[in-house]
Structures are given as structure tokens and as C-alpha cells.
Amino acid sequence: MRLLVTNDDGIESVFLHELVRALIAADHEVFVVAPRVEQSWTGASKSRHRAVHSSRSDCGLGCPTWVVDGTPCDSVNIGLAHLLPREPDAVLSGINVGLNASLAFILGSGTVAGACEGALHGLPGVALSQSLPIPVYDDLKEKGGRPDPALLSVLRATAAHAARIAPALAAGTPGRSFIVHNLNFPHPCAEGAEMRRTIPARVMLPGLFSPQAEDGTHRLVFRIGEETPHGGALTDQAALEAGFISHTVLDFSKLGSI
Questions:
Q1: Which mean pLDDT values do the consecutive 10-residue runs of the chain (258 residues) have?
Q2: Domains in the chain: ranges and CATH
Q3: Does pTM surpass 0.85?
Q4: What is the CA radius of gyration of the chain?
Q5: Is there a contact between 179 and 249 (Cβ–Cβ < 8 Å)?
Q6: Among 207, 218, 220, 247, which residue's Cα sits nearest to residue 104?
Q7: Which residues is 185 bridged to in the sheet?
Q8: Does residue 76 sit in helix, strand or coil?
Q9: How far apart are CA 76 and CA 83, in angstroms?
């Protein structure tokens, strides 16, 4: 398949690089258009009030690559309209550093929004995220995004799964269907990890900002929200806790259905 790949962790993310290498190894034609810097939790925002810069970049990925000084949605929109030589078959976004499971995370995710931007252009969209325990996430950030050997092994197993699953899901999704596949991979992600269809966990978002400081500012403090009862179907969070790959279908054509 011909694939446009973006992310919200920025062009230098090792998680993006491992996904691209796995896709190329699986003989897909890959084009990368990714934000210059991290754009986590920017959702579907676009840079309306300033000019956005794009440039061709050689990141050693072995495929045409562009860097956009904007959001994941900026990257996909500009890539489809102005950068790629021809339309791709699908838009893949990720691999995100951390999960994008539950309504509390899905609706604010820059990773999911990048895939949604593809769907809004009539293309199948697939979002990919790697669940990480908080200590592993904190250690990764302290090391400047450089995974240790154990995490790199997990990441490469996830990338191999992603390179197999994501194109197959995209190929089976009709164009102009407004469907996004949200994939979350467990930690650790074993070679034989199985995929399960899930629904988003219903998590109530907690307060995420610190009390006002003397200078009047509030700073984001990450907290996990409280899950509410959901009915019995397997949730994305429960699937990850059980070691499964979570596959949630986000069908935006059904919004407002009666």
C-alpha cells in the first residue's frame, strides 16, 4: 500500500522511526509528514493564526520525508494537498508514546486526530499507540526519548504487529467512510499477542492542572481518571491490561444517528 505516516510526538521520535522501518520492510510505499516538535494532546487543532513552514528532510528513514512546523492535522492536510506526489491509500498516525485508550484520551489525542484528518479526506485512518507503565514512560522522557534495550525490543515487536495489522485494516475500509481504527498495543507486546475488538473505556477526566502559582499560571499534572460502568463489552483499557492488542473502530458516520 501507499501510506502517509504522521505522529504527534515529532519527527525525531524513535517510535515513529520504528513504525516506518517496519512498514518499509513489509514492502509498503511510505511517505512521512510529521510535526517538527511534540504535539501531544493538541487534538484536531490546526494552525489558523500563523503561517506553517514545511520542508523536505533527510532523517535516514529510507523514504520521502517532510517536517511541518505545526500539528499532526496540519501535517496530514498539507501533506495530502501539497507534498505527496500522489494520493496515498491510507493515513497512519503513530506509534504514539503512551496509550490512547478511553474517551478521555481518544478525544484529545493528536495521534488519533492525525488519523481522523485522513478520514476527513476520504481515506482510511489508523492510529497506533504503545501503552507504557508510568515508570517506563518517565524513564523514557528523562533519557530524551531514547528507549533502553528492553523498551526497544517491545517497540520493535509492536512495530512488526502494526506493519501487519494497520495496512490490512486500511485495505478493508471503504473510502469516504469516515472510519478510523484506533489500535493500542500492550506493554510488553509479545510476538504472539492477539488482537481484540473493544469499545472505549468511559473515563471521567480529572483535573489536570496544578493550583494557580504566584505568577498566575497553572501547569499540567498528569492524572488517570475514574472509569465509569460501561455494560459488559471489552474496553480498550481492559484489553491492554489483559495483554491484548486493542482495536477500536471509530465510525464518525454514526455520530448523531437516531
A1: 98 98 98 98 96 96 98 98 98 98 96 98 98 96 97 98 98 97 97 96 92 97 84 93 98 92
A2: 2-199+233-254 (3.40.1210.10)
A3: yes
A4: 18
A5: yes
A6: 207
A7: 130
A8: helix
A9: 10
